[in-house]
Amino acid sequence: MSSPDTLRHDWTLDEVKALHALPLTDLLLRAQTVHRANHAPDSVQLCTLLSVKTGGCQEDCAYCPQSSKYETEVHPEKMLTVDEVLSKARQARATGSTRFCMGAAWRDAKDGPAFDTVLDMVRGVRGLGLEACATLGMLTDDQARRLAEAGLTAYNHNIDTSPDHYGEIISTRRFDDRLQTVARVVKAGISVCCGGIIGMGESIDDRCEMLRTLANLDPHPGSVPINALVPVEGTPLAGMPRIDPLELARMCAIARVLMPRSMVRLSAGRTDLSREAQVLCFMAGANSIFYGEKLLTTGNPDVLEDQRLLSDAGLKPMPPYASSDPTVQATRDKGPQPKPGELLLSARAIEPAE
Ligand code: SF4
């Protein structure tokens, strides 16, 4: 076994499968050992996600109610204005979030007024003292560079599943397209947020291969969202059974062992987890959550419930730019700085709930 802080990018599928096959208690011990060698064990990053352009996406991701290929209750909406987004960002900051993620349901970002508006949103969010993240689909090198100049801290672009299972889930783009955008984001000096989803009919080997792909990226993604499918009526995956929380905890633990310094983010599907299951995921090395009433279009636990959970578990919110990803730290000084009077509320925002 390598030292708990060794960074490797040469994991084999057999090694990842061997981790997956460990008794859960052994895997948790291993993950917790790695976690403590690399992170403050009592800190959880709070991120808020806002859909700034909802619905009407040209892609056919089988899990997504925003795809224009499926009849769902999500309908195309106009893009939010910069003021609307910054108002939501202020609310997120007031409840203790330190990262604000903006999602647009685009296959790829097109140059023009909409992209320029996103750049203004990024500048505005950074001006509030928050870390800024965006997920806009595939990017060109130039767009990645412009986002970096605007002060973007991180870019989310998930690989979703294994290369072998990818064609079962998405037919409108290739797995390699994802990796290309990830490489462009790295080149632009933006932290990569890249993870996947379980519960989409994939095999255990697919799950291991997905994690192996992420772990063999160099550098490792700064954040690794681990999602459980939220089956949505009207999408091809609407009838999939819910994931057993222990499987989610196992994925968090393996991600932690493979990518010691990354933030492992407990993402979609958290509403289905009991408090105990969420704490188990924190034990497994998850140290980031989406926080706020909604993910892009699906539900998320209530803010007060989350505050109570963190308080009862003795966990505290992580300050901004405290992630061990050096790219995140480097963006702190490069982008727009908080204006006077816009300094970030500290962890004081999270008081034990009544
Ligand atoms: S997941 Fe993203 S790219 Fe896929 S259909 Fe939904 S919005 Fe479009």
Describe this structure in words.
The chain is α/β, with parallel strands linked by helices. The chain has a single domain, classed as TIM Barrel (Alpha-Beta Barrel). It contains 12 helices and 10 strands. Strands 1, 2, 3, 4, 5, 6, 7, 8, 9 and 10 form a 10-stranded parallel beta sheet that branches. Helix 2 packs across helix 9, helix 3 runs parallel beside helix 4 and helix 9 runs parallel beside helix 10. The radius of gyration is 19 Å and the shape is globular. The C terminus is likely disordered. The structure holds iron/sulfur cluster.
Describe, in short, the structure shown.
The chain is 38% helix and 14% strand.
CATH architecture group name:
Alpha-Beta Barrel
The domain count comes to 1
- Give the CA-based shape: globular
Class from helix and strand fractions: alpha/beta
Beta fraction of the residues? 5-15%
Return Rg in Å.
19 Å
How many distinct helices?
A: 12
The CATH topology turns out to be: TIM Barrel
Small-molecule components bound: iron/sulfur cluster
Mean pLDDT: 90
CATH superfamily: Aldolase class I
Proportion of residues in helical segments: 25-40%
CATH class call: Alpha Beta
Distance between the termini: 45 Å
